[in-house]
Design a protein that fits this description.
The protein is mainly alpha-helical. The chain is built from seven helices and no strands. The protein folds into two domains: about 80 residues, Orthogonal Bundle (Hypothetical Protein Yqey, Chain: A, domain1), CATH 1.10.1510; about 50 residues, Arc Repressor Mutant, subunit A, CATH 1.10.10. Helix content is about 75%, strand content about 0%. Helix 2 crosses helix 4. The N and C termini lie far apart (about 45 Å).
């Protein structure tokens, strides 16, 4: 079943079970997917839906950080609950060891030894880890391994 259909189905289930957090989160997801489909002019593939979900989860993580700094525990709890709903649809994240291995392999395959060529490594690693690793974390790993 395509990911967008699974989200639709889960939204219906959440409506029936009166799960307010899941309903609101999945409505945001559906709305964002619909907007991207309008921009693109055709339905999104599963990879594109994962990209939407990754963007939304990144926004939640950033909000959690900001609300925690501001002492807004109520909003931290709300954003955390939304993030948990989003995680159900994202691919499993890579462990630090797996990510290190992918970065090291990319560096050796490309023959990069200088931080000036970090972009080449980032491009290769991000293509390989699509949706399974945060870009910020990949950037940190690449930078530390090139030093």
């Amino acid at each position: 079943m395509p990911l967008a259909e699974a989200i639709d189905s889960d939204l219906k289930s959440a409506l029936k079970s009166s799960d307010k957090i899941a309903v609101s989160t999945l409505r945001i997801v559906k709305s964002t997917i619909k907007n991207r489909e309008i921009e693109k002019g055709s339905p999104l593939s599963d990879d594109e839906v994962i990209s939407v979900l990754t963007t939304l989860s990144k926004q939640r993580k950033e909000s959690i950080e900001h609300f925690a700094k501001g002492g807004r525990d109520d909003l931290v709890a709300s954003e955390t609950a939304e993030l948990e709903v989003l995680k159900k649809y994202l691919p499993e994240q890579l462990s630090d060891e797996e990510l290190d291995e992918i970065v090291k392999r990319a560096i050796s395959e490309l023959g990069v030894s200088d931080k000036k060529e970090m972009g080449k490594v980032m491009k290769k690693v991000m293509a390989e880890t699509k949706g399974r690793a945060d870009g910020k974390l990949v950037n940190q790993k690449v930078a530390s391994l090139l030093n």
